[in-house]
Every structure is written in structure tokens, then in C-alpha cells.
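Teaching soon. Invent one.


***
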Amino acid sequence: MIALRLACFATLGALAMMAWGILQPKPLAVIAAMSVGQGLGTLGALLFGLVVLPDIKPLFRKRASVPPPPPESKAGSEPESKPKPEPQADSEREA
């Protein structure tokens, strides 16, 4: 819970730095927004990822309740029977 709050505060700090760089376009404000603001935003995103990852991790695990696929036929087993063509009537053969 503390990491989530830190992530929120870091992201809000980054947003404030970016807004300062836009509202007061002086070199120091722009440089601070680009460096410190990006660092705070990245820190907030990483902290948020660390908080959310354990919650979504079970969604990506392979479920044990899914039955395994049926085994494939082995080489020594019965060959598959192919349907035999039906005999044609004499009138169909000549045409």
C-alpha cells in the first residue's frame, strides 16, 4: 500500500514538473521537466508495476484444471481406414 502511494506521489510530482516546464518556458524549467520529471514519472511507473504485478500474475499461469490433450496414435497401431470409392453405374462410366 505504501508503494502504491509513493507511485501516485511520484507521478503527481512528475506531472507538476511537466506543467511547470510548459507554463513557464524558461531554460531551467524545461530542463528540470525533462530530467527530473521523467525520472519521477519512471519511478512512479515502476512502483505501480511492482504493486500490480503480483495481482495479475495468477492470470498468466497455466491452469491445472485443463485436461491434457489426447495422446497421438503410435506407429504400430491400426492404420486409419480410408473410404473406398463407390462403384459407378455403367451409364455414368460411358458419359
Remarks:
- The two ends are 84 Å apart (CA to CA).
